[in-house]
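Backbone-to-sequence.
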């Protein structure tokens, strides 16, 4: 729409607003100062026109390709947290208790959901298996990726 046509529409809208307000005032048997009312309507129309004209409205462009960010940012927070614990454990020089703690939490949660038992329950020892029970009950040791894999599979099989 051209600038001139846009202002004609704004003028018509202002006149309609003025007429509507004047009709509402007459309907409630009130009195309005028409000059002040006209000035307020003109002020509102001009201010809204300035706001609309000053803000550039462009259609949204959805054609850009978003590159996946490298690292753990593309994963959900829980999975990223587990991966950080695994990476820290595998790159650490000594034994790290964080992995053992996470494995214990996962085992306890799985036992509670599937068997209504906790890790410390004596009835759970038969379900855990030798490797997983040893990792959870002994002091933290440095685990190899194969040992971690066996522990996770043991938790999945519970």
């Amino acid at each position: 729409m051209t600038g001139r046509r846009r202002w004609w529409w704004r003028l018509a809208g202002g006149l309609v607003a003025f007429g509507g307000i004047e009709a509402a005032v007459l309907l409630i048997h009130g009195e309005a100062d028409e000059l002040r009312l006209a000035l307020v309507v003109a002020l509102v129309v001009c201010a809204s026109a300035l706001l609309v004209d000053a803000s550039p409205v462009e259609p949204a462009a959805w054609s850009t390709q978003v590159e996946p960010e490298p690292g753990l940012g593309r994963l959900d927070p829980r999975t990223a947290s587990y991966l950080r614990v695994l990476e820290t454990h595998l790159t650490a020089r000594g034994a790290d208790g964080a992995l053992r703690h996470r494995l214990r939490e996962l085992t306890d949660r799985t036992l509670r959901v599937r068997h209504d038992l906790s890790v410390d329950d004596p009835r759970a020892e038969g379900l855990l298996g030798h490797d997983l029970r040893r990792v959870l009950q002994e002091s933290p040791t440095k685990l190899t990726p194969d040992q971690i894999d066996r522990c996770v599979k043991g938790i999945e099989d519970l």
